[in-house]
Request: fold
Amino acid sequence: MTRIRHCVECPKCLTRYLIPCTPYRNGSYLVPTVEGSLEEYSLYCSCSRGARVSRWRSSEAKPCEVSKQAFDRGYGTPDEIILIKTGPQESWSVDVSRYLTDWRSLEKRRTLH
Reply:
């Protein structure tokens, strides 16, 4: 069964993260950049231990075909999560905030660890 999901990619390690799965089992997480903002999010990837943050606009999330293993984890390699090519007339956009409804409790959990 093919799974199509939106993802963002860490620019350093190239790990691809499925948006609705944050926080991730490897310690990475995706949060809104500005409280109440629906447009921009920060990816804190475990490869940099918080030292490197990548910022993503909701319109930059890419549609991907996701393997079962990566789907179960919520993240994976470019071989497991394959970008779907779209033409310029096919604009993909996703409201990331729809998936991050409980990001404040994520912040609380992060400060407890």
